[in-house]
């Protein structure tokens, strides 16, 4: 059996774009006719350029190989161009293709992917979700309303979720770290207070940021939130300076979580060595794929750290996350985006049940991709999967960050 054919499908979820503006799905077929699906979570170049990168990685490093040889193919891609270092775009392309290899292997052997990477450790996977607007909520006002956030949290807890995430402290700018506006700190405290009062101890609060603060700014914000005992303080500073994470971790009594923008065990291991984080959030469509994420989990175990696979993408990456989560002992929780489009794209094969995702039992990733639906929603815009704004932090009028993938940037 050899990897023989590749197709790339760029699918755009309906507005407001939960999971990003588009998802790069890959369909890999062997010379024996087995098809595997993967998803590439890399967004630094546009979808047409990413299509070319994916096809180049496949043709250069994978075509003609047996899908079992993921280690060999990884080393080729990792070392390509005489680099031998993490490259988020190349590794994003490889990650989706590698996920497809595991889907193929599982289907060939009639076993779910988790059975091929160590077996079933967990019967079900604890899930968390962002707070999204509920019916009747104003889609714009929601993101600055502690009251609406609390209502959303209560509804999700009643559905069975035991952890909810929110990120009220903007903005996310290309300028890198900044000091938070005092109004952003106050709003963040108000969100934590309202949600904690609404759900009590029935759910963990996951405070999200996206690397937007300076080290000192993150410490100021984190210390203001300590009274509400969030389970984590997510990516409080830019991911390009791993040493600074330890300063935040030492100063704030909230566990630091990070990893959605990191790739390969090299970056995660460096973070663990410094004590900068004890909750790791790899995005499997960027971090190197399922096998590399399994290695990251093993390294984390040595440091008494836990895994919380990240998801701001489509349901194919979600499926990969779940198989990893089923197989590892140091699982904390896994992110989910449970929209009708996510469910329909994989024909409801994976779903959240009372706040947990049962271990899939079908071969491979355990999903059936609705290819016609994927092709019926092509991405035709010119923006990236997600983008940071150019305008700096607004210290006078406050900052608003709209969830999803709004069509126009502020």
Query: In DSSP terms, counting alpha (H) and pi (I) runs of 4 or more, how many helices?
Result: 13
By CATH reckoning, the class of the largest domain would read Alpha Beta
The best one-word shape is globular
Estimate nothing, just give the exact number of structural domains: 2
Characterize the largest beta sheet: strand count, sense, and whether it forms a barrel. Answer: 9 strands, mixed
Helix amount: 25-40%
Percentage of residues in DSSP E strands = 5-15%
CATH architecture of the largest domain: Alpha-Beta Barrel
CATH fourth-tier homologous superfamily of the largest domain:
Enolase-like C-terminal domain
Unreliable spans: none
What is the residue-averaged pLDDT? 96
Helices and strands, in order, run as EEEHHHHEHEHEHEHEHEHEHEHEH
Short recap of the structure:
By secondary structure, this protein is an alpha/beta fold. The chain has helices at residues 47-61, 70-79, 88-109, 113-116, 146-158, 182-199, 215-225, 245-251, 264-274, 290-302, 315-327, 340-345, 371-376; strands spanning 3-11, 23-30, 35-40, 124-130, 163-166, 204-208, 232-234, 256-258, 279-280, 306-307, 334-335, 356-358.
């Amino acid at each position: 059996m050899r990897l023989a054919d590749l197709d790339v499908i760029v699918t755009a979820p309906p507005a407001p774009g939960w999971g990003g503006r588009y998802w790069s799905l890959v369909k890999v077929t062997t010379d024996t006719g087995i098809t595997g699906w993967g998803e590439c979570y890399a967004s630094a170049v546009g979808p047409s350029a990413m299509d070319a990168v994916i096809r180049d990685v496949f043709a250069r490093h994978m075509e003609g190989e047996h899908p079992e040889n993921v280690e060999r193919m990884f080393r080729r891609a990792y070392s390509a161009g005489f680099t031998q270092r993490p490259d988020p775009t190349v590794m994003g392309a490889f990650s989706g293709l590698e996920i497809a290899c595991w889907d193929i292997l599982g289907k060939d052997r009639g076993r779910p992917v988790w059975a091929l990477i160590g077996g079933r450790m967990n019967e079900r996977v604890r899930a968390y979700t962002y707070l999204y607007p509920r019916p009747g909520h104003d889609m714009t006002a929601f993101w600055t309303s502690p009251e609406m956030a609390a209502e959303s949290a209560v509804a999700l807890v009643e559905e069975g979720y035991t952890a909810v995430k929110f990120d009220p402290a903007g903005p996310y700018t290309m300028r890198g770290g900044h000091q938070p506006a005092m109004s952003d700190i106050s709003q963040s405290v108000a969100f934590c207070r309202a949600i904690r009062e609404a759900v009590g101890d029935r759910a963990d609060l996951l405070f999200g940021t996206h690397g937007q603060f300076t080290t000192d700014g993150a410490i100021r914000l984190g210390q203001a939130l300590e009274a509400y005992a969030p389970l984590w303080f997510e990516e409080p500073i830019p991911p390009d300076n791993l040493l600074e994470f330890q300063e935040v971790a030492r100063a704030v009594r909230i566990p630091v979580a990070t990893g959605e923008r990191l790739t390969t065990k090299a970056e995660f291991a460096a973070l663990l060595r410094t004590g900068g984080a004890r909750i790791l959030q790899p995005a499997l469509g960027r971090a190197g794929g399922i096998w590399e994420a399994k290695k990251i989990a093993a390294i984390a175990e040595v440091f008494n750290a836990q895994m919380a696979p990240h998801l701001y993408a489509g349901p194919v990456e979600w499926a990969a996350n779940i198989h990893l989560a089923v197989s590892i002992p140091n699982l904390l929780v896994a992110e989910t985006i449970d929209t009708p489009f996510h469910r329909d794209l994989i024909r409801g094969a994976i779903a959240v049940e009372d706040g947990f995702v049962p271990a899939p039992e079908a071969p491979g990733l355990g999903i059936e991709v609705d290819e016609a639906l994927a092709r019926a929603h092509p991405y035709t815009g010119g923006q990236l999967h997600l983008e940071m704004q150019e305008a700096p932090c607004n210290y006078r009028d406050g900052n608003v960050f709209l969830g999803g993938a709004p069509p126009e940037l502020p």
